[in-house]
Design goal:
The protein is of the alpha/beta class and about 325 residues long. The chain contains 14 helices and 5 strands. The longest helix is centred in the last third of the chain and has 22 residues.
Length: about 325
């Protein structure tokens, strides 16, 4: 089954926007902690291939890895997009596993004598509630603080930058117009504010490509917004091209089988699939649940239901996605 068919609309919008190094650089240089923005050679920022997230988290995470020169030396910037909508207390541990995978690939490609590049991890969270997660790896350890110094040299430690969209006012989201439009949309969706005036800022929307506007409209329609309000917002832009594009997309969505009966059949199959997994293996991880909730093709759901009945464990089921 193609991987792209399982991805949430959030992931598609995030990847399409920030796979472009220009958009990524404009965002990162405003939102990395000092002194890093001044040390990075932003013209050297380059997207590297591959993903490092766990198969169970595909439905709630997406990641991008960039190489860059920092202070004249090679380094890596790892951007993890998190939209599982709940606090992630073990985020530092999950990040460490992804970082180790990156270093392992780097070592394999460079040979036994290769030196590793430092990784700067940044987590961008979409949750509407403020996380209480610590950004320090050492905070995961249950060990008396007065004795931490004795074991510190034997224990890995790092910190990651956590950027929560809920904490950023719309006007404080910086970057290229495409990056701003994307992040304002991703911030607005869990808050129910997709029609906020600053999401529909005319100076931003008119500053992006037609493809970016189409992704924005597609994201809104995927969120099942009120089509009447959607049309009114489009008309306020006073652009014939945008109006025609919006109407074309709205028609396409109607033609793609969003009838109530079809949706009910999909929901019924999704529920049955999750029930089988729950009965056979216990609590289904949230990331896997979100991945399956994004599968809307009836044939795919039927096939996954058969797999759920016969697979050995959750890992083997997740590996087939």
């Amino acid at each position: 089954m193609p991987d792209d068919s399982l991805h949430q609309p959030h992931d598609k919008l995030f990847r399409a926007t920030f796979s472009n190094p220009e958009n990524a650089a404009a965002f990162l240089r405003h939102h990395l902690d000092a002194p890093l923005p001044a040390l990075v050679d932003w013209n050297s920022l380059s997207l590297l291939p591959g993903t490092f997230i766990d198969s169970r988290m595909k439905g709630s995470e997406a990641d991008l890895l960039f190489s860059a020169k920092i202070g004249g030396s090679d380094a890596l910037l790892y951007l993890l997009w998190e939209h599982q909508r709940t606090d992630a207390p073990l985020m530092a541990l999950r990040l460490l596993s992804y970082m180790v995978r990156i270093w392992q690939r780097q070592a394999q490609e460079g040979g036994p004598s290769s030196r590793l590049a430092p990784i700067l991890p940044l987590v961008l969270a979409q949750d509407k509630d403020h996380w209480k997660t610590s950004t320090q790896f050492h905070d995961l350890f249950a060990f008396p603080s007065e004795h931490w110094g004795a074991v510190r040299a034997c224990t890995p430690d790092f910190a990651f930058r956590l950027l929560q969209l809920v904490d950023l006012p719309y006007e404080d989201i910086h970057g290229t117009p495409e990056g701003i439009l994307t992040l304002r949309s991703l911030k607005a969706e869990p808050l129910g504010e997709l029609f906020h005036d600053l999401v529909w800022d005319r100076t931003v929307i008119t500053g992006v490509s037609r493809e970016a506007v189409e992704r924005f409209f597609h994201y809104l329609l995927n969120a099942n917004v009120d089509t009447g309000v959607f049309r009114a917002k489009v008309e306020q832009q006073e652009s014939k091209n945008l109006t025609e594009l919006a109407m074309t997309l709205a028609d396409r969505f109607r033609q793609e089988g969003r009838q109530e009966g079809h949706q009910q059949e999909i929901a019924s199959l999704q529920k049955a699939l999750l029930e089988v997994l729950d009965i056979r293996f216990g609590l289904v991880p949230e990331g896997l649940t979100e991945t399956l909730s994004a599968v809307c093709d009836l044939d795919s759901l039927k096939s996954l239901h058969r797999t759920a009945l016969t697979c050995a464990d959750l890992d083997s089921f997740a590996s087939d996605l």
